[in-house]
Write a structure and sequence with these properties.
237 residues, globular, 6-stranded mixed sheet, binds magnesium ion, single chain, 10 strands, 38% helix, binds adenosine-5'-triphosphate, Rossmann fold, alpha/beta
């Protein structure tokens, strides 16, 4: 279980995360939704050690992550797919995927190969394009690659930052569905950040609504999805 308690993260005078508390249950999808600037990316960046928490506590598998370096957080089984389909353009698809295995907890060669085969099975489009340069992939394929690179580290917790950004609805459905299947099958815990609240809430178990760095709702996903007044107030539709 991932447990966040009274978390505060600031950029100078800007308090981007302002006393956030919630838990993400093991083997479940928790989605964090909210408008632009709500603090969603900052929350993920703080969990993965890319931003320093000003105060509060982050606990994963009964250990505090506060003050740990990003590499050691990856080794504890947490993989972060940042916003914006982040892949290395000058490397091939296969090379990008292999990079994800550098920070694995255990690095047996046979096990790495198995993990790579698994992501190709998950995203056959990438297998067909393994020698293609990542910079020439479509947006959707790049996002599949960014997720694959995270998955070969065999994470227990996957932090996904707006996988749907800039993608066609059909590709969004496919990516979110793949992550959801993975979660059900392998017990992966997922923290899914989305502006696209509908598709995220459709697959998630729990929904956390953020506004200006604060949690304004924390409900089973179906209840949050059904609450028209919350959506109107904080998401504008
Ligand atoms: N490096 C930074 N320096 C200063 N302020 C920052 C920095 N990064 C983010 N912020 C501010 O922190 C707040 C939260 O930003 P964050 O990126 O976490 O929002 P978000 O919910 O991910 O938004 P979006 O949906 O647009 O991606 C915003 O007001 C933003 O301007
Ligand atoms: Mg963001």
């Amino acid at each position: 279980m991932l447990k966040i308690e009274n978390l505060v993260t600031e950029y100078g005078a800007v308090r981007a995360i302002d006393g956030v508390s919630f838990t993400a249950a093991e083997g479940k999808i928790t989605t964090v939704i909210g408008a632009n600037g709500a603090g969603k990316s900052t929350l993920l960046r703080t969990i993965s050690g890319l931003e320093r928490a000003k105060s509060g506590q982050i606990t994963w598998a009964d250990k505090s992550l506060i003050g740990k370096a990003p590499e050691s957080i990856v080794r504890s089984g947490i993989a972060h797919v940042p916003e914006g389909h982040a892949v290395i353009s000058q490397l091939t698809v296969a090379e990008n995927i292999e990079m994800g295995s550098l920070f694995r907890r255990r690095n047996f060669r046979s096990d790495v190969k198995l993990a790579i085969d698994e992501v190709y099975e998950l995203f056959p489009r990438l297998a067909e394009r393994s020698k293609q340069l990542a910079g020439t992939l479509s947006g959707g394929e790049r996002q599949m690659l960014a997720i694959s690179r995270a998955l070969v580290s065999r994470p227990k917790l996957l932090l996904l930052d707006e996988p749907s950004l800039g993608l066609a609805p059909l590709v969004v459905e496919q990516i979110i569905q793949t992550v959801s299947d993975l979660c059900r099958k392998s017990g992966l815990t997922v923290l899914l950040v989305e502006q696209n609240a509908n598709s995220a809430l459709a697959v998630a178990d729990y929904g956390v609504l953020l506004s200006l760095g604060k949690v304004v709702a924390n409900l089973p996903a179906a209840e949050l999805k059904a609450d028209a007044s919350l959506r109107a107030a904080y998401l504008g539709y």
